[in-house]
Write a structure and sequence with these properties.
By secondary structure, the protein is an alpha+beta fold. About 25% of the residues lie in helices and about 30% in strands.
Length: about 425
């Protein structure tokens, strides 16, 4: 497999970041969710003793290496913390690195730790443009590349050399061939009718194909009985398979003079009676037996065009939560919900090590509410807004979490740090 070289790579590979303890500052509610304030390189290393090989889904939205200065890790890598790290780890040759080399020095060790944390049946989703795939192929394995999703993030586009770029990419990698992505509910959010089970659309239960008739499919030809007097909130009427006083007897309509049949046999109809099949009144005074078609599950597509996935929707949501614009370019909540639907089950642990405004955790909370799941999230954020925006967003939407700062290093030189309480030390040993 080809490898991707850059100046300083050998030094960052040889560097072993120290273990630091995670110092819990406070809890909101009673959960195992985590928000960690600190450098994600150190935080990811600190998660290894407890979470290595356990993270089912990782999502990250790292800097895109465009030269943008408005970010703490800094695309243009002039942040003093990163410059100090480069100087300590790469040495004097770090002074000659281009911004691309410095950016790769920052990303490479973090991706290696994320790969270790990922479960064998897990997947990582990386929002990025064109700059990261080669080192991901090296770290996760070229054979473990799953797909590149093209997401229309800005319908108007932004000027990149005379062409308005509308899209960005989400790279998807797996830890191993054990990954099995879930089918998605492609119809969600598109329904106009609802009952106590959920949304649905109506489809006629009659089979219109005259090749399927009472002669060659007699088991599909039988009557329903319709309560013509009473309708529910959607204008639908109850039905029965047994005759009832004053209820209308209804067989499938004829087509081209031929008696058609239902699409379902009597046993299946009995199991779905008045839950998933009912009668709909027609303009001519007749009735039609209809199926409540609830969802269409299919593989996620590689191009996401829908409006709800655009960054604009993320900006509007965060502004609504805080009452003002407090964060630039937050990801769409629907984007993260789709990713979690694809890559998690109800008990999964989800990690985002470039947490930003906390959209990933918001999606975990919403999906748990929707399907009764108990997914957990781990967020890592370097900036001070880890408290004022990331954690505060969780408070405002009713999320529960534990807030951590990076604590003492496990070692003080060549010896175990004497400041470490023995209980914490046992956790790492």
């Amino acid at each position: 497999m080809p490898t991707f070289n850059f100046l300083g790579k050998d030094k960052v590979i040889a560097h072993k970041p120290p273990f630091h303890f995670l110092d819990k500052k406070y809890s909101v509610g009673n959960s195992e969710n985590m928000i960690i304030h600190g450098d994600n390189l150190i935080a990811l290393k600190s998660l290894l003793p407890k979470f290595e090989g356990r993270i089912k889904c990782i999502y990250i939205d790292p800097p895109y290496n465009t030269g943008n200065e408005n970010w703490a890790y800094n695309d243009n890598v002039n942040d003093p913390r990163l410059q100090k790290w480069i100087g300590e780890i790469v040495g004097r040759e770090g002074e000659d690195l281009s911004r691309h080399d410095k950016w790769l020095c920052m990303m490479y060790p973090r991706l290696r730790l994320l790969q270790r944390l990922l479960a064998d049946d897990g997947a990582i989703f990386i929002s990025i443009d064109d700059n990261l795939k080669l080192i991901c192929d090296e770290i996760f394995g070229e054979n473990n590349f799953v797909s590149q999703i093209t997401l229309v993030a800005n319908w108007s586009g932004r000027d990149y050399g005379g062409i308005a770029r509308m899209h960005e990419y989400i790279l998807v990698y797996r830890k191993s061939a054990a990954l099995k992505l879930n089918l998605i509910n492609d119809a969600e959010g598109k329904f106009k009718l609802f009952d106590n089970i959920g949304g649905f659309e109506l489809r006629e239960l009659r089979n219109r194909n005259v090749r399927f008739n009472d002669g060659n499919r007699p088991n599909l030809y039988y009557p329903f009985y319709v309560d013509t007097e009473n309708a529910d909130e959607n204008g639908l009427h109850k039905i029965s398979l047994e005759p009832r006083a004053n209820w209308l007897e209804l067989y499938p309509l004829e087509s081209q003079g031929i008696k058609t049949v239902w699409r379902w046999g009597k046993e299946k109809s009995a199991a779905n009676l008045n839950a998933n099949i009912m009668a709909k009144p027609m303009k001519n005074g007749r009735f039609m037996i209809v199926e409540k078609y609830r969802e269409e599950r299919k593989m996620a597509r590689s191009v996401w065009l829908e409006k709800e996935f655009r960054n604009e929707s993320g900006t509007l949501l965060v502004k609504k939560i805080f009452g003002a614009k407090v964060f630039d370019y937050p990801k769409s909540l629907d984007t993260l919900l789709r990713i979690l639907e694809m890559a998690t089950d109800k008990n999964s642990i989800v990690l985002d090590s470039f947490a930003g405004s906390g959209t990933t955790a918001h999606a975990v909370i919403n999906l748990n509410k929707a399907d009764g799941g108990s997914r957990r999230f781990i967020l890592i954020e370097l900036n001070d807004y880890a408290e004022t925006i990331t954690a505060e967003r969780m408070r405002r939407i009713g999320g529960e979490f534990n807030f951590y700062e990076l604590g003492e290093s496990l070692f003080d030189g060549d010896f175990v740090n004497p400041k470490i309480p023995i209980g914490q030390l046992r956790e790492y040993i």
